[in-house]
Design a protein that fits this description.
146 residues, mainly alpha, Arc Repressor Mutant, subunit A, two-stranded antiparallel ribbon, 7 helices, 2 strands
């Protein structure tokens, strides 16, 4: 599952703020220019991030946004869910479950499992290029076939 474009923009913006070491606010117009996107689109993204407590706005001259938490305290799941909460619990109120309901339930469960993986990865790990994606206990397909 690949995150939405909005989620990618949110993650890019947060990494840019983290690079500033949370001391200097960065304006959305500068972030929009650096990412080559429209300011209004980025405003929507940062509004969601602010509502979920991931960034803080700083008013006045030289104002902008800073991270509301340390990069090590922000999980990628928080970022994704701030932008697009599509992991609601699958279910049906009726005894009849159609094939479409089953397919939708399948996707919701898979998205939920993916989000659980993202809960184990922090913004700091992404910035540092940590090896969070390597799990020595997981067998590869070729190892399992032997």
């Amino acid at each position: 599952m690949r995150p939405s474009t909005k989620a990618e923009l949110a993650l890019n913006g947060l990494t840019m703020l983290a690079d500033l070491k949370q001391t200097n606010p960065k304006s959305l117009s500068v972030l929009a220019k650096e990412q080559s996107i429209s300011l209004s689109y980025l405003e929507q993204v940062f509004s969601s991030l602010k509502n979920k407590g991931l960034v803080k706005g700083v008013r006045g001259p030289g104002g902008g946004y800073v991270l509301a938490k340390e990069p090590g305290d922000i999980t990628i799941a928080e970022v994704l869910l701030a932008i697009d909460d599509s992991t609601e619990n699958p279910g049906s109120n009726s005894g009849k479950i159609t094939k479409i309901d089953k397919i939708n339930a399948f996707w919701k469960v898979m998205i939920g499992r993916t989000i659980e993986l993202y809960r184990n990865v922090t913004l700091e790990q992404v910035i540092n290029g940590s090896t969070f994606f390597i799990d020595d206990t997981t067998e590869t397909a070729s190892q399992a076939a032997e």
